Amino acid sequence: MDRIIFGDNQFFGINHMSEEKAQAQSERFKDLDSVIKVIDTAYDCGIHAFMFNTHERVGQLCDHFRANPEKYSDLRLYPSMPYAHKYANAVNEKGMVGALNEFVFAGRSAGQALKTIVRGGLSVINQDMIQVMKLLVDAEMRMFHGLNVKAIFLQNIVTDLLLGMGVKEVFVGFSDHIKKTYGVDAAFNSMNMPKLVDFLIDSGIENPIVCSSINKAGYLMQPSIGEYEKTLEEKTFRPMAMSILASGAVPPKEAVEYVAGNKNIKSIVFGASSKNHIQQTKDLIDQYTN
Amino acid sequence: MLRGAIIGFGRMGLTHFSILNNHPEVNFVAVCDPSSFLMKNISKYADIETFQDYRKMIDKMDLDFVIVATPTGAHAENVKYAIEKGLHVFVEKPFSLNSTQGRELVDLVGGKDIVNQVGYVVRFNDVFLEVKKLLDAGALGDLITFKMEMHGPTLLKDAKSGWRSKKKEGGGCLYDFASHSIDLINYLVGVPDEITGSVLQSIHSVDVEDAISSTFLYKNNLRGNLLVNWSEPSYRKPAYKMEIFGRKGKIVADLHAYKVFFRDEPELDGFNQGWNQCYVTDFVEPVRFYVRGFEFTRQLDHFIACIVNKSANKVCSFADGLKTDTVIERIVEDAAKRRF
């Protein structure tokens, strides 16, 4: 597990604080070169671990990594899937089954498609949710082929939706599939960390990796910052902190002090767009870690 | 424990199920959807009864409440059956296909102790809750103009299949998308007295509109403009922007932040003359369980609280849903007057 992981929300106009900022970011990062520039800045600052949503544009970024193996020889990736808006729009356009077909078979030749069907045990006909999930995971993972993947995350909207439904089999199925097919641990993003940790441990997933917002402001921490602190203290799991700045509500120094001050937090995910911010945050984390 | 069920297990049905499934006062006992794929998987992995006929479900399951999340065209018959059986009802937006249907349902709940709510979730958004408080406190003085804009990348190609592309089933930008912003106007500044200059435009769709503009006029001299487009590829997800201008100042709000300008030193605590920028992180409170946004949990917890406390729903009742349906109808009538 890397201590510092660089996040990618800023590249895709995702900002919980301000729609205006989100829009400005999506304008700034409209071409791939501007994204690569920031990634290279982080890489040069010594951050070699990156969490990427399975956004279409990350596919292009992965092509760039593969085309420059020497430059990125120490790259470590933490994919997070699925990029939910891609699915939501496809479901609106094509309905649930049409959207599934599109994602499972996108970019596949007839022969590959046939293999997918065989491997999926004709899951579309069997109509088994867990088999369909595995096909979707493999479809999402295609863009990362040949790259060094350290853990694979289930993105928070899907994690929390399934957590609310309480279907243990899907979490176990996801974990087993990731371990077996990709040789790494499955991991989970959530806005409801304490509940998820209990649920995963109950489901028999030992020492799970859980990434959630952890910040001094208690922002995006359900049901309360107190429950988060208690879970961090009492439960055996590998916590990762994101949204440490609470979208800007907590100043960087205080933010890092709070998160790095908790010895149980293994990893910190943060995103930034300027060299100054990247270097400053990394230095702060290093300073409070040692 | 309240015994609950869901009719319609699409994206919203799933979301509502997930949010309420672990509510301490709720025990979901059944779900109903015509899709055999979904029902087969739910019954396989969750301890819940599944149905493909909602009447059978309601008759058999001894329910306290239902969540109706079917396509709009089915709302009226689903809701009517549930009310007749005395169940509390939460129905997704928009309320119904036309005001005749809607009025019948409002009349039907009249005088009964039935909690009724329509899923206009933006009313429960943190920013708009704050905006409502400011307006109710008279912070802007007499209102003069407003502008409500809503843009999103919901439909970027002609959707030939599915109910969202069919006018008869409640599809189209006006019912399915703009209804949120129309409801927000009704909630924040009131139902317009006159509607004029309405234009419905198709961008990709054949049977329905993709963009709407309209002017709302009020007897107290307030004027507002509605501008909506759900075929906007430059947006990542649906976005609202509302500007309200009054004699004492102005509010500019979206789902994540608002700013307010006061012409003079305001009487409200925490605000100054000139611009005041307020972010959601300044005032948001965590919810019990989060899926997709604070407001989704807040609206359902409000519904359940009304049932548990035996109190009438004052935030987003069927009567409110009918008001929005009626404004939608008036926009359609007004747009039909165009001669070219």
Looking at the structure, the CATH topology of the largest domain in chain B is Dihydrodipicolinate Reductase, domain 2
Q: Taking Cα atoms only, what radius of gyration of chain B do you get, to the nearest Å?
A: 20 Å
Mean pLDDT of chain A: 87
Name of the CATH homologous superfamily of the largest domain in chain B = Dihydrodipicolinate Reductase, domain 2
Q: Distance between termini of chain A?
A: 17 Å
What's the CATH C level of the largest domain in chain B? Alpha Beta
Going across the major beta sheet of chain A, what is the strand order? Answer: 1-8-7-6-5-4-3-2
The secondary-structure element order of chain B is EHEHEHEHEHEHEHEEEEEEEHHH
Largest sheet of chain A: 8 strands, parallel
The most extensive interface, with participating residues per chain, is:
A-B, 52 and 47 residues
- Residues in helix, % of chain A: 40-55%
User: Strand order within the widest sheet of chain B?
Assistant: 8-9-10-7-11-12-13-14
Overall mean pLDDT score of chain B? 94
Structurally, the number of domains of chain A stands at 1
Q: Please state the second-level CATH architecture of the largest domain in chain B.
A: 2-Layer Sandwich
Q: What is the chains' assembly state?
A: heterodimer
Number of strands of chain A: 8
Give an overview of the whole structure.
The complex is a heterodimer of chains A (290) and B (340). In chain A, strand 5 (185-190), helix 10 (193-202) and strand 6 (209-213) form a beta-alpha-beta unit. Residues 120-125 of chain A have low confidence and may be disordered. An eight-stranded parallel β-sheet of chain A has the order 1-8-7-6-5-4-3-2. Chain A is α/β, with parallel strands linked by helices and 290 residues long. Chain A has 13 helices and eight strands. Chain A has helices at 19-28, 32-44, 56-67, 84-105, 110-119, 123-126, 129-141, 156-165, 168-182, 193-202, 225-234, 252-260, 275-289; strands spanning 4-6, 49-53, 76-81, 151-154, 185-190, 209-213, 238-242, 267-270. Chain A has one domain (4-248, 259-281): TIM Barrel, CATH 3.20.20. By secondary structure, chain B is α/β, with parallel strands linked by helices. Chain B contains ten helices and 14 strands. Chain B has helices spanning 11-21, 36-45, 54-61, 72-84, 99-109, 126-136, 173-188, 280-283, 294-308, 318-335; strands at 2-7, 26-32, 49-51, 65-68, 88-91, 116-118, 143-151, 194-201, 211-217, 223-229, 239-246, 249-253, 257-262, 274-279. In chain B, the strands form two sheets. Chain B has an eight-stranded mixed β-sheet. In chain B, strands 3-2-1-4-5-6 form a six-stranded parallel β-sheet, sandwiched between helices. The longest helix of chain B has 18 residues, at 318-335. The termini of chain B are far apart. Chains A and B meet through helix 1, helix 4 and helix 8 of A and helix 1, helix 2 and helix 8 of B.
